[in-house]
Specification:
Helix content is 24%, strand content 21%. It contains five helices and twelve strands.
Length: 214
């Protein structure tokens, strides 16, 4: 991923604005901000979790419920249900005990190396119930983006207090300077004949462990 220096970017945008003004082009109108910024369901509420579950299932993800102390067992169940028998990759900051047999990611692993893993287990940064979207931001319990794009199975843990109702609320939970990955179900695409193909841009199987309770 290419990083653009913020000073250089500001300079380029400034020059564009000056050129547009010199050419007589009007300044763009302010973007409307009158959309709903919050939902009506409280974060972590039963209704909100059910909405997220419904969206995830509609996207063909598998959803498992777990109490905080049941997360390791739920992860093991998810891997077993997906038929995973090979090595499982985990980010370096995954909580201890979640996946005891997992292999910590090594930054030197290439895409070919990552392809040798049957699955990956991560935490998450936040989730939006309305769109069924889970966000990862590259922190230690989620790891770099590549590890969730190459293995064929992704087990992702989402806590109830990370779930919000709307997209604006989701964006508000994220740090704008972090590399963010948005996941809405397993990777899938459709061609002009509307034939669904899974696993094109990421895992073909998404298993979400929803953690509720204190």
């Amino acid at each position: 991923m290419t990083t653009v220096d913020s000073g250089a970017r500001a300079d380029v945008l400034s020059r564009i604005r000056v050129a547009n003004a010199a050419a007589g082009h009007p300044a763009p109108a302010p973007a409307p901000r009158d959309y709903a910024r919050t939902g009506t369901l409280a974060s972590g509420s039963a209704e909100l979790m059910e909405l997220l579950r419904d969206r995830l299932v509609d996207y063909k993800a598998t959803v498992l419920d777990a109490a905080p102390d049941e997360v390791p067992a739920a992860i093991a169940t998810g891997l077993e249900s997906a038929g995973v028998t090979g090595r499982v990759l985990v980010p370096p900051g995954l909580p201890d005990g979640w996946c005891p047999d997992g292999v910590p990611d090594d930054p030197d692993y290439s895409a070919n190396d990552l392809d040798g893993f049957a699955a990956v287990v991560t935490a998450s940064a936040a989730a939006c119930a309305v769109t069924g979207t889970i966000a990862l931001d590259g922190t230690a319990d989620q790891g770099r983006r590549a590890i969730t794009l190459v293995p064929d199975v992704h087990v992702c843990v989402v806590r109830a207090d990370q779930v919000v109702e709307t997209v604006p609320e989701l964006i508000g939970r994220l740090e704008p300077d972090r590399p963010t990955t948005f996941i809405s179900g397993p990777s899938a695409t459709s061609d002009i004949e509307l034939q669904r193909v899974e696993g094109v841009h990421g895992p073909r199987t998404l298993i979400v462990v929803l953690v509720t309770g204190a």
